[in-house]
Amino acid sequence: MDGTTYLSDYRPYPFTLDRVALTFRLSPRATRVTAALSLSPREAGTPLHLDGEQIKLISLALDGTPLTPADYLLTETGLTIHPAALPEGAFTLQTEVEIAPEENTALEGLYMSKGMYCTQCEAEGFRKITFYPDRPDVMARFHVRIEGDAPVLLSNGNPAGQGPGWAEWDDPWPKPAYLFALVAGDLVATHGTFTTMSGNKVDLNIWVRPGDENRTEFALGALQRSMKWDEETYGREYDLSLFNLVAVDDFNMGAMENKGLNIFNSKLVLASPETATDLDYERIEAVIGHEYFHNWTGDRITCRDWFQLCLKEGLTVFRDQSFTTDVRLGPVKRIDDVIALRGRQFREDAGPLAHPPRPDHYREINNFYTSTVYEKGAEVVGMLKTLVGAGGYRKALDLYFARHDGQACTIEDWIKVFEDSSGRDMSQFKRWYTDAGTPHLKVTENFNNGTYTLEFTQETKPTPGQPEKPPRLIPIAVGLLSPNGDEVVPTTILEMTEATQSFTFTGLATKPVPSILRNFSAPVVLERETSAQEQAFLLAHDTDLFNRWEAGRNLARATLIAMSGGAEPDSAYLDAIGTLTAGTTEPAFRALALRLPGEDEIAQALFAAGATPDPEAIHRARRTLMRAMAQRHEAALAATYDACAVPGPYTPDAGPAGLRSLRLACLGLLSTLDGGARAKRLFTEATNMTESLGALGVLVAAGDAARELAAFRERWQGNALVMDKWFLTQLSLCPPGQAAELAETLAADPLFDWKNPNRFRSVMGGLSANHAGFHRADGAGYRFYADWLIRLDPVNPQTAARLSTAFETWRRYDPARQALIRAELRRIADTPALSRDLSEMTARLLG
Ligand code: BES
Ligand code: ZN
Questions:
Q1: Has 291 been annotated as catalytic?
Q2: For the chain, counts of helices (H) and of strands (E)
Q3: Which of 179, 230, 423, 557: disulfide with 236, CB 3.0–4.6 Å?
Q4: 337 has a pLDDT exceeding 70
Q5: Predicted pLDDT of residue 1
Q6: Using a 6 Å cutoff on CB, does residue 291 contact ligand 1?
């Protein structure tokens, strides 16, 4: 395909770039950027190519002497200086360009958000700021001068002087351009400190717009906890005397790890009990951790090229997941992460966008910040840790930091560190990085004379461009239980390397019940013929919390699948739910176990089993099962609902959050019987956003929330982050028949500020999360969605392209729906002047 970049084409940059001096004279429509790049050629006679897009060249000089048009070639994508115009040794190239941050609606490069200047350079945004070798393997030391009338002027590194209308910054650590950041505006800081393990004092600032400063306390604490955890767990210390974190309202992604100046979507910073839910708090802490952890896994050691993205992202997601497990949630965190992995990554792997964690070609790199690179990338790191053990993992990571500090690395470097530190050959394991698709693992068992055998077969379906799928190394954690519930064989890691392979356990008195893939030891689909009784037994007795939940999930999924074909609710499942509700397992676990799989998960499972999902039938089955659960266990659910009321003032801690989560799970079930009475009461009485939004969602799902929605809007119309929830909740949870019309109504609402990515995502994400509403048989959902992608594309292609993944499941559905979606995708693809982002996505989606 034309404009495609291939991994195999990688060549080192033919110049070294030691230092960069930048000066910004800020102005909304005409910011001047001057750059001085200290370059030296690695080999004689090569042209100097600098990337540059949508920037106006004002002047160009080499060692102080202006270049003439004959010396260089200027195109839409960059500047090339002819070898004849270059000296033999080191030189300085000076450029001056003009850019218009106010007109930058794509939010990539230097742009404005509510009067404040900010930047987003990953992956290739720096080339919209100045002419530069905008690739991660070019690492340089930056000195930045900012001139402007904003009271606060920030960049990376340490302050190097300031006066009225100017500030200078110096970053001592060489870094690629994607980690550059600049922020200027009327901002206020919440200040804190952290003393590192070797006694260095670090100043911490959380910068927000005036008025938001009373919602920053939690973020500051989360940053301090992250810094401490990285010292204790990975031995990694912070390396500057200042750490700035800024919240902005217009941001394409969640947050960004710019060296010493992290920039965050304000929804991942600002929190107070009245405005943020427990889930928001949890997410804020995780993302602050994530971006902070990048300081070592991303900034100090970066990626050689963007194909290696999962080197920093997969590892850093693994680190943030471990952090949340350690400081907050414990083992239930794994369940949340697996639900997210299956909902996004397995879905991606099963459709036309399937790709390996390390792809080998792309057209637009922004389209590869995917669940496969992130979440599957994290799973692969987790498997490495399982294979070499906790001690072996720490040894490998110590070697990684010692060997590669200051470098731009590859997945090969990463694997080599594990090989060298453990003495193991990891060549088969590497397929997890290079092969797409989710392996399906079939298992059969045999018991004979005290010997128990598990036979596994692995198979991965072909994915786009990869028809052959050789067997992978799969770590399978297995434990065996005796029929009375005792664990007779504790968790053991089986290393499967063949397409079919058997493992034997001897000396068993009776046939055991196997608990397979404990803690979800590998990102595979486990297929096993089993009875509902056995699943119920595991739900009650397994010593592995993940597999207890998994057993309940298997039961729920199976009965929902049967019910969507007309069957009655399964009584083994209903019985098990009663035991669980009345039991004493931690509330957060019971809450997870009481929540039914989402409609998309049922559709995915039906498709994997060779059936065609019917969205309306799935929706009805799920509501019916909720009512059956409530009818069967009304008393226990009501008692649990009452018992889980958390007394006293709100804290976002995991304990009370778990109680609230269980309480809301009970509320959702009970509302199918009580006409919404409890939810209406909770909505009125709630003093925190978790319960007020939870109650609102329950009422929306019951189709009886008009008054509450109006009251909520009235109260919160001045708070953008809360209004995002208002849009999202009603659209994602409303009765599916109403979703498309509601989407039209909301898109006409004066508060629908569609150029703000959070608001746009609330509406589009709300619609696509309403599975049966989005997939309405007449195509109204698809049409609305495509209309808005087409409208957003010229304004913000990155966000438009990301949201197009709502269509990635089109092959699951019946021919009529497939035809409707294909027609919408073609309509998008045929739109004149479509962005590279969205045209790559539609081409891949259409296959
Ligand atoms: N480096 C990314 C942010 C990013 C992604 C910038 C894509 C430009 C393009 C950052 O570290 C990140 O991964 N952010 C995530 C949140 C994280 C907790 C997984 C995000 O923004 O969604
Ligand atoms: Zn990241």
A1: yes
A2: 28, 31
A3: 230
A4: yes
A5: 45
A6: yes
Query: In whole angstroms, what is the distance from residue 563 CA to residue 555 CA?
Result: 12
- In this prediction, residue 133 carries a pLDDT of 99
The answer to whether 510 and 325 are in contact (CB under 8 A) is: no
Strand partners, 168: 145
pLDDT at 384: 99
Query: Which of 186, 185, 142 has its CA nearest to residue 160?
Result: 142
Count of alpha carbons within 13 Å of 722, Cβ hemisphere only? 23
Sign for the pseudo-dihedral over CA of 569, 734, 702, 667: positive
Is 256 touching ligand 1 by the criterion CB < 6 Å?
yes
Phi, psi of 9 (to 5 degrees): -90, 5
Beta strand 5-6 with 361-362: parallel, antiparallel or unpaired? antiparallel
Q: How far is the CA of 264 from the centre of ligand 2 (A)?
A: 12
Nearest to 597 by CA among 541, 549, 535, 656: 549
The Cα 676–Cα 682 span in angstroms is: 10
Tell how far the Cα of 203 is from the centroid of ligand 1, in angstroms. Answer: 24
Residue 141, classified by CB atoms within 10 Å of its CB into exposed (0-12), middle (13-18) or buried (19+), is middle
Q: Which atom of ligand 1 is nearest to the CA of 287?
A: 18
Question: What residues contact residue 633 under an 8 Å CB cut-off, 6+ apart?
Answer: 574, 577, 578, 581
For CA atoms 484, 489, 490, 495, the dihedral sign is negative
Which positions ≥6 away from 402 have C-beta within 8 Å? none
- Ligand 1 proximity of 122 Cβ (cutoff 6 Å): yes
Smallest Cα–Cα separation from 642: which of 594, 692, 681? 681
Report the residue among 119, 369, 372 best suited for mutation to probe ligand 1: largest number of ligand atoms under 8 A from its CB: 369
Tokens of 269: 């910073």
Taking the alpha carbons at both ends of the chain, their separation in whole angstroms is: 13
Instruction: Calculate Rg over the CA atoms of the chain.
Output: 28
Residue 409 parent element (H or E)? strand 408-409
Dihedral sign, Cα of residue 588, residue 591, residue 597, residue 600: negative
Edge to edge, the sheet with strand 513-516 lists 487-496, 474-481, 513-516
Atom of ligand 1 nearest to the CA of 254: 21
Torsion of CA 54, 59, 62, 64, to 10 degrees: -150
Handedness of CA 83, 85, 89, 94 (dihedral sign): negative
pLDDT over threshold 90, residue 310: yes
C-alpha 287 – ligand 2 centre gap (Å): 8
| pTM of the predicted model as reported, rounded to 2 decimal places | 0.99
Q: How far is CA 672 from CA 561, 635, 669, 680, 696, in A?
A: 20, 14, 6, 13, 14
CA of 612 to the centre of ligand 2 (A): 36
Question: For 764-778, what is each residue's pLDDT tens digit?
Answer: 999 999 999 999 999
Closest CA to 660 of 341, 273, 340: 273
Q: In what order do the strands lie in the sheet with 109-113?
A: 109-113, 116-120, 182-185, 152-155
Beta carbon of 257 within 6 Å of any ligand 1 atom: yes
Distances (CA, A) of 86 to 22, 49, 80, 533, 578: 21, 12, 11, 77, 78
Ligand 1 pocket residue status of 123, Cβ below 6 Å: yes
CB atoms inside a 10 Å sphere around CB 498: 11
Active-site choice (257, 291, 379, 824):
291
Residue 386 sits at the vertex; the CA angle it makes with 384 and 391, to the nearest 5 degrees, is 90
Which pLDDT score, from 0 to 100, does residue 745 have?
98
Q: Which of 108, 124, 179, 256 to mutate to test the pocket of ligand 1 (most atoms within 8 A of CB)?
A: 256
| Region 7-30 average pLDDT | 98
609, two tokens: 């089993």
Averaged pLDDT, 575-595: 95
